Amino acid sequence: MPTITIKSEEQKDAEADVERVHDDLGPFVVAAETTRMAMVFTNATEPGNPIIFANDSFLSLTGYDRDEVLGQSFNFLMAHASDAQSLATIASEFEGNSAGGSEIRYRRKDGSEFWAAIFISPVRDER
């Protein structure tokens, strides 16, 4: 028997953001979808930097389904043991719209933890 999934407004907004990203960035999104490197796009103009795109490599690495990731704060995967300096560096890069990176401990859906190299690079809409 088919199941009916009711989407929250947050989920609908996240999916609309994904569609806008697809429309605006076209080939860039196709490249991100097909790379073996885990990638997410966030909306740095919104509080918490919600995830608006996650490729299949990211989903495979973390064990989450796309609908569990979209709309979540960028830091929802950060393990409780993540050090304050890494968190501050990432927050500063988001706030300053600057490129940079750090290593941080993330948590998979199953609770296991792994170290991830995080690279942040702003993509701006110049229109």
Describe the structure.
- This protein is α+β, with helices and mostly antiparallel strands and 127 residues long.
- It has one domain: 2-Layer Sandwich (Beta-Lactamase).
- The chain has five helices and four strands.
- The protein has helices spanning 9-25, 27-34, 56-62, 66-69, 84-96; strands spanning 40-42, 51-54, 100-107, 113-120.
- It has a two-stranded antiparallel ribbon with strand order 1-2.
- Strand 1 and strand 2 form a beta hairpin.
- The radius of gyration is 15 Å and the shape is globular.
- The chain starts with 8 loop residues before the first helix and ends in a 7-residue tail after the last strand.
- 18% of the residues are buried.
- The mean pLDDT is 78.
SSE arrangement:
Elements lengths: L8 H17 L1 H8 L5 E3 L8 E4 L1 H7 L3 H4 L14 H13 L3 E8 L5 E8 L7
Antiparallel strand pairs: 1-2, 3-4
Task: Explain briefly what this protein structure is.
This protein has helices spanning 9-25, 27-34, 56-62, 66-69, 84-96; strands at residues 40-42, 51-54, 100-107, 113-120. It has 127 residues and is α+β, with helices and mostly antiparallel strands.
